[in-house]
Amino acid sequence: MSFPVSKIAACHIAPVWLNTAATIEKAIAWIREAADNGAQLICFPETFVPCYPVWTQFKSPVDNGKLFQKLCEQSLYVNGPEIFAIQQLCAELKVLVCLGFNERSRSSVGCLWNSYVLISDDGKILAHHKKLMPTFFEKLIWSHGDGHGLEVCDTKIGRIGALICGENTNPLAKYSLIAQGEQIHISLWPPFFLTKRPEEGEEDGFGHATMIRAACQAFEGKTFTVVCSNFFDDAAREFCKADDPANADAYDLVGQSTTLFIGPDGKPIGDVLKDEEGIAYCTFDLNKSVPCKQFQDVAGYYQRYDIFKLTVDRTPSVPVTFLEEASSKIEYPSP
Description:
By secondary structure, the protein is an alpha/beta fold. It contains eight helices and twelve strands. It has one domain (5-328): Carbon-nitrogen hydrolase (Nitrilase/N-carbamoyl-D-aminoacid amidohydrolase).
């Protein structure tokens, strides 16, 4: 039995802030660059298109209306032309892409989800996931997701699963992927996430927490893990400071999240990017996860299925279901 060895790319890049068309153009350019460098899987961070709404960490909800409206206007339908353009590119270049984006609803002009799609090397959407539970201030922006996207996909480079940001803290969500034979785990992250105001000289606790969560998934599942974070560039920083001058100092103090890779033993491997925009690369040799399973396999012999039972509902949630027999419809004459 032999498993694939593949080159993975994680795009530690900034969107063109609140500009979907320009951000998709940027994504296409970076996908081409990563493909030219031999990457077979190319990952983008949490809500890369058109941005992660960092302003909700500072501004009062009553002051967020205009930016929320702009975010809604620039968000994507999962079956819209922007995602389709990435699908076509994947088919052309024969690469897989995981893309985080703000997803619009066709049932409500004000409903958004924090979502990702995993696109195959023939341009098909393999997985479409909406973040199960927005975290902390994120509840001001995004609706609850569903279990439909809790899926591990069989690809030519291995079995791939992904979770968004704080979902990587949810033991049941993580195990639901591990139990599907996940070999490559992608975690998508924002440019920064604050639980209190930043202070000069203070260590960034979010980076440490991210590393713990990523290493935990890798070590427990014996998976190769991608940590792909947004980059907060000068243009985004100046936009936020101009929009919210009262918090300009805080925007200057926030640090950058880190993009990196972790092996099945829980140790970092490959490139690391933090304070500069770019693409991080790493080679995943999935054969190296096999020996790690010998001493602990939480989806195999190291689990007690007779004691623990986990049921996951992967039914997509919809706002309404109409039951109607075609034979009962009334035919109305037309003039």
